[in-house]
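Hi W.,

Here's what went into the run:
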Amino acid sequence: MIGLLKRDLALAIRAGGGFGLSLAFFLIFTALVPFGIGPETGRLADMAPGLLWLGALLACLLSLDRIFQLDWEDGSLDLLATSPLPLEGLAAIKALAHWLTTGLPLVVAAPILGLMLNLPGPAYLPLIASLLAGTPALSAIGTFGAALTVGIKRGGLLLSLLVLPLYVPTLIFGALAATRGAQGLDSTVPLVLTLGITLGCLALLPFAAAAVLRVNLR
Amino acid sequence: MFAHMSSIWEYANPRRFMATSAALLPWVSVIAAICLIGGLIWGFFYTPNDFRQGATVKIIYIHVPSAVMAINAWFMMLVCSLIWLIRRHHVSALAAKAAAPVGMVFTLIALFTGAVWGQPMWGSWWEWDPRLTSFLILFLFYLGYMALWEAIENPDQGADLTSVLCLVGSVFAVISRYALVFWNEGLHQGTTVSTVGVGVEESEGVSSVFLYPMLTSLAGFAFLFLALVLYRTRTEIRARRLKALIAQEQMA
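Here's what came out:
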């Protein structure tokens, strides 16, 4: 399992792995927001926590089809499926690798992009905490979606259509935690609920992902 | 004697299902038409206007039944998906596939009539109220489910994948529902249909004057759903048979 994780991380970081793509997307998204809603700092500051959450979510979505697609195309997914590692473990490791290469960099980048959107001072800690708590769920749900659509040619758009409705609860609680923090309110409850969704996703979705992988590899 | 007891699993046999559904379909269709026409005429022309909402209240005879059936259609798909995953009955998978577009249209009807009703009541066509928003999300789930069916060529593989999606989607739909309540208090009134009122003035629930035509209309929507699902499942089975025949011909 560790070997697989190292392999996935190495593949992602080396040239052509698309490691920086989602980060660049996040930056561009943040840069485009003021063009859409105007440059007034007050309004931007009000919307910043939600916008940063939305940007992180979309950036995460963008890299989902890479989770299984390349392994599927070159046949290494078949090899991985016949290896002693159970498919559930494979799905969990793939989700972890996706989070380490996409979710974690987004969490690190969010406060810097928060400066650009005039994110209020007390919001930084809740924003980072809620992203840390919520992005693993995005990776786990995305891994399920990627496993579901791996056999479909040009399945990228379908993947978004399937995954985005599943992202709703995570987005609601995560963005709510960040927004409440920005307003100086206590954000413990939404934070705990975000964490709850993440833990539930991590516990259950690898099984669903493995089930659909088995169907797709049949 | 027990050997002759009919079990629902007998209808897992497509031939048996086709025979029974062919006999049932005209009856179900006629009952659906009678209940719908009767319930709607009764509701639209023979019930008083609400003292606050005026005639706009009459949209309830379409809005509530379609909303109820939109949720129940998804629930029926969930049950059919489970049956397919556990017992591998093709009819069950095809029934789930057949129900999806019907459920989606009911969701659209509920959203549309809700907007038409909400405009004079709340002053806007759309509010980000938990109930409205969860119906919008339900609509997206229907879209995704149908798009996944469309995208996969192998029917058994499609049945497997959409069934798992239906299971996972159901869990997330329920979580979303409660997340939305947490997110926004909402304008939409609570459920009043299950709390039956006695008279118009003193009751908090829907008065029986409105309730009975609405229940008739609800029965009409339920039978309409049943008729459409039976019809579409029959079409799916025929399409499957046709495909098998063409494959046989090419083999020969």
